[in-house]
Amino acid sequence: MAGAAARGTGCVTLRGAQIRDLLDAKHNVLFDCDGVIWNGETAVTGAPEVVSLLKQRGKRVFFVTNNCTRPRENYVQKFSRLGFTDVAEEEIFSSAYCSAAYLRDVARLQGKVYVIGCGGVMKELRDAGVPVAEEEDAEPGASIYNCPLDPDVKAVLVGYDENFTFMKLAKACCYLRSPECLFLATDPDPWHPLRGGRVTPGSGSLTAALETASSRKATVIGKPSRFMFECISSQFGLDPARSLMIGDRLETDVLFGSNCGLTTVLTLTGVSTLEEALAYRDGQEPQQKDCVPDYVMESVADFLQALEE
């Protein structure tokens, strides 16, 4: 296993010459989005410039996000809206896009997928040519006892769903009674921060409910699963040893990088804190060691000085 855990170190604060040396050694830079290059509808200061300068230096830049709420074409619009001038759709790998690719290319699904999720997941599935079981408007008095179930459903996919209901959970349980029915989750994120200090339950919370109800475990597509990196690598031929993962969440972004053999950087503009990273590094739990970042920086803007020289 590459990275901090293998060396028993980690959490090195990146400064000056270290940043230059690190960038010189890497050809591919993978960014998480939420909490790393933007927060909501505000770009992290300096992030658009960092992305442009990395590309001018000949680096290949990719964006890997567990956020499944929008299709890739909408991400392109958001990048543009926030001042990122040169981000292409093929550089964006969301858990929605990768879930669709998995069902089409890996599972080679012969049938329909029942989706607990939002429009972003639906759009990526349809763009990939994966048949989706349409959700019928419930008849008055309908319940799980008498609602119709689609006999062609061969997979259940769980993602972020603001309209999650008991009926959706119950239907998914019924489909998963068949051992031949695949059980997938876009990502394991338990919650997401909102403005004003509030939070919203993430895909991982909904997946946990269905895992409990069905007595089955979902195959996770998004970070920290290796599949997102394999999805990028199959298209662009990435060498893990020359790749850098920059994220804000230890249990997803950093663990993803560790699982894939990438050098990892924690940026402190999002969810996880330096104190949490140090606690993992200095703790006694072996499974936490893979969540320890190789490096820590306050913000991706710390790359600017090295890139502008």
Give the tags.
alpha/beta, 7-stranded parallel beta sheet, 309 residues, 15 strands, 12 helices, 4-stranded parallel beta sheet
What does this structure look like?
36% of the residues lie in helices and 18% in strands. It is built from 12 helices and 15 strands. Helix 4 (72-81) links the parallel strand 5 and strand 6. Helix 5 (95-106) runs parallel beside helix 6 (119-127). The two termini are 33 Å apart. The model has no long low-confidence stretch (mean pLDDT 94).
> Rg to the nearest angstrom?
20 Å
Give the spatial strand order of the biggest sheet: 1-15-14-13-2-5-6
Reading the helices and strands in chain order gives HEHEEEHEHEHEHEHEEEHEHEHEHEH
Please count the helical segments. Answer: 12
The N- to C-terminal Cα distance equals: 33 Å
Estimate the global geometry from the Cα principal axes: elongated
pLDDT below 50 for ≥5 consecutive residues: which ranges?
A: none
Question: Average pLDDT value?
Answer: 94
Largest sheet: 7 strands, parallel
Number of E strands: 15
Strand content: 15-25%
Helix content: 25-40%
Structural class: alpha/beta
Oligomerization: single chain
GO molecular function, one term: metal ion binding
Protein name: Pyridoxal (pyridoxine, vitamin B6) phosphatase
Binding site for substrate: 192, 223
Pfam families: Hydrolase_6, Hydrolase_like
